[in-house]
Amino acid sequence: VYFEQVFDSNLFFFLSLNVLKADFLKGLPVYNKTNFSRFHADSVCKASNRRPSVYLPTREYPSEQIIVTEKTNILLRYLHQQWDKKASVHQALIGQSKHMLMDKSTHIKIQNTGKEMHNKRKRMQMKGLLFYPASCRVWLSCGTKHK
């Protein structure tokens, strides 16, 4: 008997809440009074037979991050990184040039003479002028620019 009384009182409370929602919308100031004419308190929640939706996070956030200050300057760190990159590329090029190359057609072994690769441009001397072939400038041997 007690269960039925509690159930009836809860049902009455639920129905009275839906009526209150509809009454709340009636008093709103609007330009067109028919805007809320299609609202029905019974059609608010019809999906009670479905499984409730569960939030699944798509991103894992890392735990606490510790901020550490570097003792070296940012510019120095950058320059050291660039220097290390250039040194590793240079060592790889030297290592490749020192390997023996084998021609598959004639089976002739060609060995590198041990010359290292240089990034400097060769210059040619012509009657007191120094000419750099990769650029358009001609420099006098005394160091002044000549056009």
Report on the architecture of this protein.
The structure is a single chain. The protein is α+β, with helices and mostly antiparallel strands and 147 residues long. Among the domains are: 2-43; 121-147, no CATH class. The protein has helices at 2-26, 74-98; strands spanning 101-102, 109-110, 124-126, 129-131, 138-140, 145-146. The strands form two sheets. The chain has a four-stranded antiparallel sheet, with no helix packed on it. It is elongated, with a radius of gyration of 42 Å. The termini are far apart. Mean pLDDT is 63; it is low at 1-7, 100-116 and 134-144.
Largest sheet data: 4 strands, antiparallel
Mean pLDDT, rounded to whole units? 63
The share of residues in extended strands comes to 5-15%
H-E string: HHEEEEEE
| Principal-axis shape | elongated
Radius of gyration: 42 Å
Number of helices: 2
User: How many strands?
Assistant: 6
Binned, the helix content reads 25-40%
As residue ranges, the low-confidence spans are 1-7, 100-116, 134-144
Beginning-to-end CA distance, first to last residue: 112 Å
Domain DET1- and DDB1-associated protein: 23-85
Pfam family, one: DDA1
Protein name: DET1- and DDB1-associated protein 1
Family: Belongs to the DDA1 family.
Topology, please?
Layout: H1 2-26, H2 74-98, E1 101-102, E2 109-110, E3 124-126, E4 129-131, E5 138-140, E6 145-146
Antiparallel strand pairs: 1-2, 3-4, 4-5, 5-6
Notable traits:
147 residues, alpha+beta, 4-stranded antiparallel sheet, 34% helix, disordered N terminus
How would you summarize what this structure contains?
The protein has 147 residues and is α+β, with helices and mostly antiparallel strands.
